[in-house]
């Protein structure tokens, strides 16, 4: 499956927010689960697994995507509007998940 950036962005925008209860209070999680899965397991081989990823690493990477210091056509768009608190919440959520679930 090879989606163009506009098609992927449209899929994200239309993706229903259907996260399990433990992540329901994490802002912006619905956007992340489109590619990285509800349980932090990528929905395609091109999307990395985030379950169990160290939160400090995720905070650093999301901040780099947000600032443009780390380049990714999709992640720069997704991370740009995130606040520091949202980044911390997302990083903590994915760190709390068991890898490989």
Question: What descriptive keywords fit this protein?
Answer:
101 residues, mainly alpha, Cytochrome Bc1 Complex, Chain D, domain 2, 5 helices, 0% strand, globular, Cyt_c-like_dom_sf, Cytochrome C, metal ion binding, iron, heme
Quick overview of this protein structure:
Keywords: Electron transport, Heme, Iron, Metal-binding, Signal, Transport. Helices cover 50% and strands 0% of the residues.
CATH class: Mainly Alpha
Order of helices and strands: HHHHH
N/C terminus separation: 23 Å
Instruction: Write down the CATH topology.
Output: Cytochrome Bc1 Complex, Chain D, domain 2
Round the mean pLDDT to the nearest integer and report it: 84
Instruction: Say how many strands there are.
Output: 0
Shape: globular
Which architecture would the CATH scheme give at its second level? Orthogonal Bundle
Number of spatially distinct domains: 1
Strand content: under 5%
Tell me the CATH superfamily.
Cytochrome c-like domain
How much helix, percentage-wise, in residues? 40-55%
What is the gyration radius calculated from CA atoms? 13 Å
SS-derived structural category: mainly alpha
Organism: Skermanella stibiiresistens SB22
GO molecular function: electron transfer activity; heme binding; metal ion binding
Protein name: Cytochrome C
Keywords: Electron transport, Heme, Iron, Metal-binding, Signal, Transport
Written account of the structure:
The protein has 101 residues and is an all-alpha fold. It has a single domain, classed as Cytochrome Bc1 Complex, Chain D, domain 2, CATH 1.10.760.10. Helix 3 packs across helix 4 and helix 3 packs antiparallel against helix 5. The longest helix has 13 residues. The protein is globular, with a radius of gyration of 13 Å. About 9% of the residues have low confidence. One of its GO terms (molecular function) is metal ion binding. This is Cytochrome C.
């Amino acid at each position: 499956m090879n989606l163009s950036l506009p098609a992927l962005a449209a899929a994200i925008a239309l993706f229903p927010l259907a996260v399990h209860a433990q992540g329901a209070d994490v802002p912006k999680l619905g956007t992340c689960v489109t590619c990285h899965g509800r349980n932090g397991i990528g929905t395609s081989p091109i999307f990395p697994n985030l379950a169990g990823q160290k939160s400090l690493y995720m905070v650093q990477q999301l901040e780099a995507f947000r600032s443009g210091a780390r380049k990714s056509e999709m992640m720069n768009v997704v991370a740009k509007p995130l606040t520091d608190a949202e980044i911390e919440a997302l990083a903590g959520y994915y760190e709390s998940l068991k890898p490989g679930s």
